[in-house]
Amino acid sequence: MSTEPPANAEPIRFDTKIAVLLREDLEPWQRLNVTAFLVSGLGTAAPEAIGEPYEDADGVPYLPMFRQPVLVFEGTKETLKAAHARVLSRALPRAVFTSDLFSTGNDRDNRAAVRAVGTDGLDLVGIAVYGPRNAVDKVLKGARMHP
């Protein structure tokens, strides 16, 4: 049985957006690591963002993933600070990654490192956000698409 959509099927448009904003001065390995950590939290806070499980033609199952693309942006330290303030004011599902997390090695220490710093003092290197497209766009004002 084919699961391919009909040839005349309309493209799927989402009224939500998943976005990651990274500080522009990160090393390539840091960008990948931060992005992976950040998006891992969004599916737990917004289960509707997760699609159905996958299966190949031989019936081998695979885990479900986000049902829509994850857009990755970059910006300055100031851009991240402003975006963080906007995401908090809109109460959207969000995840943060601070520079302190590069020196920890486990989840417990990661959470302790974030908890040790007040909101305004967080040295953000990345944030992830999920929500209505227009709200996420407003949070990301001033950021540019990651090259």
Written as H for each helix and E for each strand, in order along the chain, the element string is: EHEEEHEHEHE
Mean pLDDT: 92
Q: What share of residues is helical?
A: 25-40%
Give the overall shape: globular
Q: Order of strands in the sheet with the most strands?
A: 5-6-1-4-7
> How many strands, which pairing sense, and closed or not: the largest β-sheet?
5 strands, mixed
> Structural class from helices and strands?
alpha+beta
List keywords for this structure.
about 150 residues, alpha+beta, five-stranded mixed beta sheet, two-stranded antiparallel sheet, 4 helices, 7 strands, about 25% strand, globular
Model description:
It is a single chain. About 35% of the residues lie in helices and about 25% in strands. It is α+β, with helices and mostly antiparallel strands. The strands form two sheets. A five-stranded mixed β-sheet has the order 5-6-1-4-7, with helices on both faces. Strands 2-3 form a two-stranded antiparallel ribbon. A hairpin with a 5-residue loop joins strand 2 and strand 3 (about 60). Helix 2 (about 75-90) packs across helix 4 (about 135-140).
Summarize the structure.
This protein has 147 residues and is of the alpha+beta class.
Question: Strands, helices and their partners?
Answer:
Blueprint: E1 16-23, H1 28-45, E2 54-55, E3 61-62, E4 70-75, H2 77-90, E5 94-98, H3 107-115, E6 124-132, H4 133-139, E7 144-145
Parallel strand pairs: 1-4
Antiparallel strand pairs: 1-6, 2-3, 4-7, 5-6
